[in-house]
Amino acid sequence: MDEEYDVIVLGTGLTECILSGLLSVEGKKVLHMDRNDYYGGDSASLNLTQLYRKFRPNQDPPAELGRDRDYAVDLVPKFIIASGELTKILVHTDVTRYLEFKQIAGSFVYRDGKISKVPSTEMEALKSPLMGLFEKRRAKNFFQFLQNWRDDDPATHQGIDLDKDSMKTVYEKFGLEPGTQDFVGHAMALHLDDDYITKSARPTYDRIILYTSSMARYGKSPYIYPLYGLGELPQSFARLSAIYGGTYMLDKPVDEIVTDSNGMFVGVRSGDETVKAKQVVGDPSYFGAGKATPDGGKMRVVEEGKVVRAICILKHPIPGTEDSDSVQIIIPQNQVKRRNDIYIAMVSSTHNVCSKDVYIAIVSTIVETDKPELEIRPGLDLLGPIYDKFVSVSPLYTPTADGRADNIFITRSYDATSHFETVVEDVHEVWKRVVGKDLVLKKREVEVEQ
């Protein structure tokens, strides 16, 4: 391997594949390596045999679950917000031509022991069982205020400055009850915890508008999901990279990150071959996640917590969701006396990810105690009888340095959220550090085909 590359990308998780696709389009010479023999890394979709082999090496999947090839079970469940950042990247890169999407049927929130649909319009707010009569009126005024807001028209501001005033101030102005604040902040603005309440209202306003505009796009829910599972996303960006000259090597062990005497990145060693490049981008597992790196150097990533996920196989839709074939349910932390929300994502055979009459529900949250499985119990309890479940606890790693000093750029682990907005934030941040300028997505209005 005498060739020198601009960038070596390690790992085929979604973040890495988006970056290698975008870097290839930018004209960079990219080599993409993965130690696994499948795409997707931590964000892969597994067939039934792979799923059982990963969690229970000595057990074959039950025959009654159907054919192996009918399954594509996501290890990290996330939905795509219809008007969100990932959709913009898919449209900008034209990756949509490799994928088909289907809408997620419903978006629900847990409140006072039961689940209800998340209202996203004034009309839905008026019909919602989540609020009493007077609260509905207050919520209607709040939603109208958000929809009518124009930055350049002070008459629409009602005395509020979104950049200076906190979300707490906005909630108080409209007199919204804590329960309403819960579903607005967590099920619509999709905040992970309540820290947002004391911060400037602008980011929360932007998030609610994103949710309602995504909702307006197709009705029913603001989320879409690729047929055949999320593993299709990294593969589609890999295809994009290949079209622009990117080179892919799966099943390739990475034995050492080679640096020079100053600690600058030189190349990657696999066995007795070393391939050179100017920069390396990779997921934390290639940089000694939590330990000294293979180059014997300093700690490059630190653990910032853990995520617990339970992949559950069901033989029925989730009770109380109007028999929806796919849903997102958010359990705001206040409802279950926690610091972090619990997320439930469910898909089914309509998304070509499992056999007919089988449903795959994944419950996840950030770990807060030494008994992670007990922490997701409120979510598991909503699922009804569980045919089988696979529980994993994964560390959340974050890089200790931005990479500019040694040309080693490390992405973050996938969090517990049930959407891709935080993944795309990481893509934007890493891109800026690697390329030295902001990632600008051209506006190309293309409807994601239903």
UniProtKB/TrEMBL annotation:
Molecular-function GO terms, alphabetical: GTPase activator activity; Rab GDP-dissociation inhibitor activity
What SUPFAM superfamilies does this protein map onto? FAD-linked reductases, C-terminal domain, FAD/NAD(P)-binding domain
Family of this protein: Belongs to the Rab GDI family.
GO CC entries: cytoplasm
Q: Which PANTHER family match?
A: RAB GDP DISSOCIATION INHIBITOR, RAB GDP-DISSOCIATION INHIBITOR
Please tell me the species this chain comes from. Rickenella mellea
List the GO biological process terms.
protein transport; small GTPase-mediated signal transduction; vesicle-mediated transport
The lineage's top-level taxon is Eukaryota
Keyword Transcription regulation present in the record's keywords: the answer is no
What UniProt keywords apply to this chain's record, in alphabetical order? GTPase activation
Q: What is the lineage of its organism?
A: Eukaryota, Fungi, Dikarya, Basidiomycota, Agaricomycotina
Protein's recorded name: Rab GDP dissociation inhibitor
Keyword Nucleus in the entry? The reply is no
